[in-house]
From TrEMBL:
E.C. no: 2.1.1.-
SUPFAM superfamilies found in the cross-reference section: S-adenosyl-L-methionine-dependent methyltransferases
PANTHER family documented for this protein: TRANS-ACONITATE 2-METHYLTRANSFERASE-RELATED
UniProt key word DNA-binding: no
Domain of life where this protein originates: Bacteria
Keywords of this entry: Methyltransferase, Transferase
An annotated GO BP: methylation
Protein name as it appears in the record: Class I SAM-dependent methyltransferase
EC main group: transferase
GO molecular function: methyltransferase activity
Pfam families: Methyltransf_23 (PF13489)
Cleaved signal peptide residues: none
């Protein structure tokens, strides 16, 4: 098992497969909210590829909407979980950098991926060949400029907006993007943005929201629709290959 796969297995064991992580319900509710938008992008004729399984929220919601749905997962334990929980889907157990679909897909979902990888521009160039003519890629990442990071700096809890928190380290984040930086990396890889969105009006870190009920988290997601994307906890772009 190579070093990168070992790191993915560590993240799987310490986070995704760990029922003692108390704030996962917040992230899961946010992903469920994002799926309302993502579902509008999936056509029954589409071939969809999703990078990573995570908690399986997206796959559970979108997997049955497409003609073909493939999950690319580098952690063997999570790849096995996909096979067990979603036997009708295709599973590619591989690192993103080492795999490519037999045929280009109509929709590529890179949800909370680019903050994890060693070389995001190189990966984006590799992914460009996965997308069929007229197809799209959706990218979602945590937002450097989010309200809760701004508050953390204002309170002296973190030195800069892009300081990685202990939670970032736990889940394997290597960077935190702002919207211009994300679009710059994707443009270098040959993608043009066709839509920008922000998700989750998050003013406090997860650790201070553990006593909130699901209705509060859903409300904060709905409130994000009224805010600039640059202030939300997560930023999303829908992009198409150039040329």
């Amino acid at each position: 098992m190579n070093t990168r796969v070992q790191e993915l297995e560590r993240i799987a064991a310490q986070y995704h497969l760990n029922d003692d992580v108390v704030d996962k319900f917040i992230e899961d509710l946010c992903q469920e909210y994002c799926c309302d938008w993502l579902a509008t992008l999936v056509d029954p004729t589409h071939d969809v590829v999703e990078l990573g399984y995570g908690e399986g929220v997206t796959v559970s919601r979108l997997g049955r909407l497409a003609r073909r749905y493939t999950v690319v997962e580098g952690a063997p334990t999570l790849a096995q979980r996909v096979r067990e929980e979603h036997p009708g889907l295709e599973v590619a157990e591989a690192l993103f950098e080492d795999w490519a679909p037999a045929q280009p897909c109509d929709l590529l979902l890179a949800l909370h991926v680019f903050e994890h990888v060693d070389d995001p521009v190189s990966l984006a160039r590799h992914l460009r060949s996965w997308v069929a003519p007229g197809g799209e890629m959706v990218v979602i990442v945590p937002n450097r400029d989010s309200l809760h990071r701004r508050l953390g700096v204002a309170m002296g809890l973190q030195p800069t907006l892009d300081t990685l928190s202990p939670r970032d380290v736990l889940v394997g984040h290597q960077r935190v993007y702002d919207l211009p930086g994300l679009e710059r990396d994707l443009a270098q890889a040959g993608f043009a943005t066709v839509e920008r969105r922000g998700f989750f009006a998050k003013a406090l870190p997860n650790a201070l929201m553990l006593d909130l009920g699901p209705e509060h988290i859903r409300g904060l997601n709905a409130l994000a629709e009224e805010l600039p994307a640059s202030l939300c906890a997560n930023i999303a772009v829908r992009v198409r290959p150039i040329g």
